[in-house]
Amino acid sequence: MIRIRNATKTFSSFKAVDNISLDIKERETLVLLGTSGCGKTTTLKLINRLIELSAGSIEVAGKNIQQQKPEELRRRIGYVIQGAGLFPHYTVKENIAVVPRLLGWNKSKTETQTSRILEIMGLSAQKYLWKYPRELSGGQQQRVGLARALVTDPPVVLMDEPFGALDPITRSSILHEFRNLEALRHKTVILVTHDIQEAFELGDRICLMDKGEIQQLGTPKELVFQPANAFVRRFLQERRFQLQLQVLQLAELHSYLQPHLTFTDTNIITLPGTASVLEATQLLSVATYPRPVIALEATATTPALHLGISDIMAAVDKYIQTLNL
Ligand SMILES: Nc1ncnc2c1ncn2[C@@H]1O[C@H](COP(=O)(O)OP(=O)(O)OP(=O)(O)O)[C@@H](O)[C@H]1O
């Protein structure tokens, strides 16, 4: 969907983005992750030409972006920035209608779609359409920012720290909703963050950058279990164990599990094999008595199993040992 080849951006003599190449697949969520100043935002803005390339090339849907007018290009690429970036003197309705107006939509289509997308974002159209950004909370502004980026249903959406300005609780609830948002499911999303947890929760793949270069591009599991170099290892070090539990699915532990087959407990929580090991351990550590047990659903090739927390942790240990980390 997006093809970046040898992209470089130089400010004076400083290389903010240094000869990076990557492909972003259709419908994937790719997270650009890294510390402040590593070139994430510059990379994002190169894609919609808010910043022009110094060298290299970028194609979106098979077309070289240099051969299109920036306004044309941006009509097909949604853009969400930290703090939502709403126009303060426009109402919510007017803010969301900016791109539809550029596209020449008529009034009735614009109004219907504006209300629809606002409702999808969890804001009542009746209540919020006429409000100004200053009358909204940070979380609500962020939702309007997302609505504005999605109202014309662009195939590509760029997001720059979209949840960065929110308090942890609002952020966690928006993150959860975001992952399940049907309106985003079929889109190619490139999201910038410096938050490791957010990257691992949202990214199908993560592109970890440092000093304008790509250090590793891979799935969350690849980054955590097969770090490409010392930088990646160091970057994830502090959260490593939690991330390992987060990216591992229960089914992947099957051959390392030595379960109790005859549990009589009544406090049984059934999980599918696709559930993360982190989710299972969190469920098991919430209650103390009666100690809950995880029942792992049977598949065509594996029997159902009953597991306590020690069974799971022992299996995780064995799994990690076999990878020789
Ligand atoms: N217009 C500019 N002129 C000069 N230098 C710039 C310009 N824009 C960015 N830079 C520099 O390029 C580097 C990369 O900036 P960029 O905004 O891409 O980083 P980032 O990884 O997104 O960081 P952050 O998470 O802090 O936003 C930084 O050192 C920054 O100071």
TrEMBL record:
Q: Which PROSITE patterns does the record associate with it? A: ABC_TRANSPORTER_1, ABC_TRANSPORTER_2
Name the chain's protein. Answer: ABC transporter ATP-binding protein
InterPro entries recorded for this chain?
A: AAA+_ATPase, ABC_transporter-like_ATP-bd, ABC_transporter-like_CS, P-loop_NTPase
Q: Which Gene3D superfamilies match?
A: P-loop containing nucleotide triphosphate hydrolases
Q: Which UniProt keywords apply?
A: ATP-binding, Nucleotide-binding, Transport
Any Pfam family matching the protein: ABC_tran
**Organism name:** Pontibacter silvestris
- Could you tell me which residue ranges the ABC transporter domain spans? 2-236
Similarity-based family: Belongs to the ABC transporter superfamily.
PANTHER family linked: OSMOPROTECTANT IMPORT ATP-BINDING PROTEIN OSMV (PTHR43117:SF4)
Q: GO molecular function, one example?
A: ATP binding
